């Protein structure tokens, strides 16, 4: 039977590093971020919902979503961020579950990469949940460097998610990503070998 592994972490904890290892090992990955972009493309019902809630000023001249404008709007206002999440949630869930179903027949393990796994209540759709972990101080440092953010901007993004410590406590598996990429890769490979996938 195929195992469904939910993979999450915090922003800038190195989740994409772990996803890359699973892909290199040949396991199919359902990527919630890719799906989140697809469901708000021009002509999609989710985009129409966003426009009817937040107005046409969050659109580019060509009618596509202006992610920067929407991001600025929702990261500075908790109520608007929650409204956006509630609005997109049903579209996202349907698309994610449908992709899991499609990929189940292809491998013994399907990895489902969902940044907001716990926040979106997806843990019940998974057989196990793995969290890619680094302490918040490292997370903050990496995020500021990666996205060229001020400390305040970085904290806004970190605090828009469940804390990494809470995610770590709730996880079935923790991939500690504080050391080198090679060491993280070894952790994932060892887990796969141990579980005979």
TrEMBL record:
Reactions mediated catalytically: 3'-dephospho-CoA + ATP = ADP + CoA + H(+)
Pfam families with a match to the protein in the record: CoaE (PF01121)
Keyword Lyase attached: no
Pathway assigned in UniProt: Cofactor biosynthesis; coenzyme A biosynthesis; CoA from (R)-pantothenate: step 5/5
Annotated ATP binding sites: 12-17
PROSITE patterns recorded: DPCK
EC numbers, comma separated: 2.7.1.24
Gene3D superfamilies linked to this entry: P-loop containing nucleotide triphosphate hydrolases (3.40.50.300)
UniProt main location, coarse: cytoplasm
Gene Ontology BP terms: coenzyme A biosynthetic process
Locations listed in the record: Cytoplasm
GO cellular component terms, semicolon-separated: cytoplasm
MF-aspect GO terms: ATP binding; dephospho-CoA kinase activity
Lineage top rank: taxon: Bacteria
Keywords on record: ATP-binding, Coenzyme A biosynthesis, Cytoplasm, Kinase, Nucleotide-binding, Transferase
Biological role: Catalyzes the phosphorylation of the 3'-hydroxyl group of dephosphocoenzyme A to form coenzyme A.
Family as reported in the entry's similarity comment: Belongs to the CoaE family.
Protein name: Dephospho-CoA kinase
Organism encoding this protein: Enterococcus rotai
Lineage of origin: Bacteria, Bacillati, Bacillota, Bacilli, Lactobacillales
